[in-house]
Amino acid sequence: MAFQLPELGFAYDALEPNIDARTMEIHHSKHHNGYTTKLNGAIAGTELEGKSIEAILANLDMSNGGVRNNGGGFYNHSLFWKVMNPEDKGSLSGELKEAIEAAYGSEEAFMEAFSKAAATQFGSGWAWLCVHKGGKVEVCSTPNQDNPLMPGVTCQGTPVLGLDVWEHAYYLNYQNRRPDYINAFFNVINWNEVSKRYAEAK
Ligand code: MN3
User: What domains, with CATH codes, occur in the chain?
Assistant: First the structure.
């Protein structure tokens, strides 16, 4: 069974004015679709065919560029659409809030750390909040389509919140103003989903 481009779960214009409809449409229907198609091509006829994306990434041969870039791209964007929502997004609360406060001191300090990771990732990449076994959380960033599930990536863990800082994610609306895009992202985080993923991962 080949991987399928997941539905967004909301309309392309639903995140406006934080993320514009044209960017969302191109990002989902072109970029994410491209990663999905190329991932299927890269694993077709190999022993990876039929495995879950999590299993493929956790056991990845990092020298396999086709699966690394497109498998990462498939997984990362699938997470990205889920952790954003225009409505019913809750707030940072419960045991995730406690874990974040234990690691960073306060919600504000966590937001600063996450923003800094996103702003200072040179070139293309992602900022993450990831969870280690036992429930400890960590903010980090990775280049290109790498993510914390992959072997040897600096912050090993399960990503529960991710922000795409490739220029294709923001350039139409924000041009070179990546910090403005990062600030806007905080307005659309689906904390209910992030909390659910934290509970499953810890
Ligand atoms: Mn992208």
Answer: 19-202 (3.55.40.20)
